[in-house]
Amino acid sequence: MQNLIQTASAAGNFKTLATALTAASLNDTLNGAGPFTVFAPTDAAFAKIPKADLDKLLADKEKLKKVLLFHVVAGKVHAADVVKMKDLSKVKTVEGSDLTLHLHGTSVKLNDSNVTKTDIDATNGVIHAIDTVMMPS
After folding, report:
1. Mean pLDDT along residues 33-52
2. Would you say the C-alpha torsion 30, 133, 116, 99 has a positive or negative sign?
3. DSSP readout, 25-81?
4. What pairing do the DSSP bridges indicate for beta strands 98-104 and 90-92?
5. Domain 4-78+115-130 class?
6. What is the distance between the alpha carbons of residues 33 and 123, in angstroms, rounded to a whole number?
7. How much is the mean pLDDT over the chain?
8. Taking residues 59-79, what's their average pLDDT?
9. By Cβ atoms counted within 10 A, which residue in 88, 100, 101, 126 is the most buried?
10. Residue 3 and residue 109: Cα distance in Å, rounded?
11. H-helix or E-strand containing 11?
């Protein structure tokens, strides 16, 4: 098993995320002991952002770091843990803001982002793929 960065890179659908993590100098953080839960926007999620806006975000290291850490929660939270939570529960991110959990049957949303794949395990955490890049307020 590999760490979070290696696992995301090997998955093949997180290339933009890997580029963003490098641009924000967060590789060392997510290579660390953790554990972390990463709600990882797929390449398709990043493609929803207009190219000019994405380029601007990638160039602004501090804002990019804030956006990326908004997708990370301390601890290893698997899908089985999430479904035991209550609808509209708040989850504190490493960035410091809360995500709102929306549970509808077997579907899970965080804010306005759908969880599309769960429990991609890594040595220092777990990745859940999401379909939208979430922006902290």
Report:
1. 95
2. positive
3. T-HHHHHSS--EEEEEE-HHHHHTS-HHHHHHHHH-HHHHHHHHHTTEEES---HHH
4. antiparallel
5. mainly beta
6. 8
7. 93
8. 95
9. 126
10. 25
11. helix 4-11
